Amino acid sequence: MQGDHGFMRNDVANLVILKKLHVAPRPAPTRLPISVSWRPPPLGWIKINTDGSSQGAPGIMCTGGVFKRTDGSVLCCFHTSEGVGFAFLAELLAVIVALE
Q: What is the superkingdom listed in this entry's lineage (predicted)?
């Protein structure tokens, strides 16, 4: 079981455990994919797309970002290595680095 939601993880190990305990499985609902596409910024603006990640929790953090013009062309980009931390912190650091 996972969390307070009463749903099982959708994996074989959990199904086997539930069957041995004679408990009816209650799989987590399937999420439908959502189409996401990049939209250019308004005329005269620059759009900054950032991302951050960590290899583990905690783990080595990295950040990156791309600055794009209205026509979608790349103005500049960056990437950094930020030491050890969590993915959420890496995401925040990516925004801070972009704004600096």
A: Eukaryota
Share of the chain residues as helix, strand and coil, in percent rounded to the nearest 5: 20, 35, 40
Contact between 63 and 90 under an 8 Å Cβ cutoff? The reply is: yes
Contacts 24+ apart (CB under 8 A), 15-20: none
Q: Structure pTM?
A: 0.64
Average pLDDT of the segment spanning 39-59: 94
d(CA 34, CA 98): 27
Compute, in degrees rounded to 10, the torsion defined by CA atoms 48, 54, 60, 61: 20
Element (H, E) at 32: none
In this structure, how many other beta carbons lie within 10 angstroms of the beta carbon of residue 53?
14
Asked if the model's pLDDT at residue 77 lies above 90, the reply is yes
